[in-house]
Amino acid sequence: MYAVTGATGQLGRLVIEMLLKSVPAERIVAAVRNPTKAADLAKRGVVVREADYSRPETLGPAFVGVEKLLLISSTEVEGRLPRHHAVIDAATKAGVSLIAYTSMLHADTSSARLAVEHKQTEELIVESGLPAVILRNGWYAENHLMALPAALEHGAFIGAARDGRYSSAARHDYAEAAATVLATDGHAGKTYELAADHAFTLAELAAEVSRQSGKTVAYNDLPETAYCDALAGVGLPADLAALLADADVAASRGALFDDGAALGRLIGRQTTPISDLIAAALHRLSQ
User: Residues in domain NAD(P)-binding (predicted)?
Assistant: First the structure.
């Protein structure tokens, strides 16, 4: 059986959808914190089991009979390592034959604070002795486009990345890669640096939004502290705002750039262009 943790999250649901294209529903386990949120998956024949990272007693039963497990990193930042540790321990005790983990691009060398717990989780997996595949995901393109409504309203994206290049890919591209390593063989022991085929700066992102929307949208680069304050000013928790501002600064040093094209090779096609994602986002906003 194949199990996906966090299966009702944005990435998890997409992975389930990708798996359903090649794997019978009854062989897929949606491991979720709240099974009622996965009722639609259960109706399609997917096996739904409770698996709460913060309640280790739920994890062992969730992984019974599971051969390949995708551990989607917890959304808790700077506090997720114990949760990941619990999943890895439960998977080991359940006899899982392969664990895949959604890490962060260049987690072993990245200067971004967000990479720290990813690196530590990778180390825990190595220590466990479980055969593993590490999926080091780059930035999600959707992260940038969350700011699209505000950028259109105010005529600018803001950030602290200077002219750093982002190899940001679509969430569904990362999901397809994760489903591929679960549904096919030959991935154990590998680490994939997953990133879009074409990178862009935030100024280039703003220029493409301008081109497609017909509105003038610029990119305003800010000092790290000012960007952090701006994020906190729109309601983000202070700790998260600081982490995201730090990630932008790390991006200015190349932390979120990769030109190895591993993602495209893994999914067997070109990654989705940022221009296509902008077009789709603008279309949704127009509805």
Answer: 6-183
Backbone angles phi, psi at 17, to 5 degrees: -60, -40
Q: H or E stretch including 183?
A: helix 171-183
**Beta strand 68-71 with 28-32: parallel, antiparallel or unpaired?**
unpaired
Residue 207: how many other CB atoms lie within 10 Å: 15
Ordered domains of the chain (ranges, CATH): 2-137+169-194 (3.40.50.720)
> What are the DSSP E strand ranges found in the chain?
2-5, 28-32, 47-50, 68-71, 98-104, 132-137, 156-159, 191-194, 218-221
Give the separation between CA 125 and CA 91, rounded to whole angstroms. 10
Strand partners, 30: 4, 48
pLDDT tens track for 203-253? 999 999 999 999 999 999 999 999 999 999 999 999 999 999 999 999 999
**Does position 76 have pLDDT exceeding 80, yes or no?**
no
pLDDT digits (tens, 9 = 90+) for 45-57: 999 999 998 899 9
Read off the pTM: 0.96
Contact 183, 274 (CB under 8 A): no
Q: Which residue has the tokens 């998890």?
A: 12
